[in-house]
Amino acid sequence: MSTSITVFANAALAGGADPLGVSVSPSSFFDQDNNCPLDSQLITASASGGEPSYSYAWTWQSGGGGLTILSPTSSTTRIRVTTGGAKSGVLLMTVTDQEPDTATDTCSVNMECGLL
Predict the structure, then answer these.
(1) What's the pLDDT tens digit per position in 24-47?
(2) Which of 1, 4, 57, 110 has a C-alpha 20 to 30 A away from that of 96?
(3) What residues form DSSP beta bridges with 77?
(4) Residue 65 placed within a domain
(5) What angle do CA 44, 64, 115 make, to 5 degrees?
């Protein structure tokens, strides 16, 4: 007599939650103004699937010099440029669920202040 046991390592395979995902909106933007400092439009991360609740982390994947992430652990944030000139970078959103699994998405940031 043989006994078989199947172990599911992923909740999605076991018929549980969908895989964790995240989407950032907008995916890119350009903000400019003659006055400094300048805050960007609102950037939003929407997590889905996985095992709620979620934690959020905004970091720079590349660039980002001269730019400040105003709410680095929130699902929404704005970027601030405080010195004149053109600044750019790729903003990386990492969302983590309770498993803990992670998912990422990016937003291309281009900002100018004091150049007009």
Answers:
(1) 999 999 999 998 999 999 999 999
(2) 110
(3) 43
(4) yes
(5) 100
Cα 99 to Cα 35, 45, 49, 52, 59: the distances in Å are 45, 19, 11, 9, 22
Is residue 1, in this structure, part of any structural domain at all?
Answer: no
Domain count within the chain: 1
Our CA dihedral for 24, 27, 28, 29, rounded to 10 degrees, sits at -60
In the predicted model, is pLDDT for residue 57 greater than 70?
yes
Residue 14's DSSP bridge partners are none
Handedness of CA 27, 30, 36, 38 (dihedral sign): negative
Specify the residue for token string 């010195």: 83
Banded model confidence at residue 48, pLDDT cuts 50, 70, 90: very high
**Per-residue pLDDT, 5:** 40
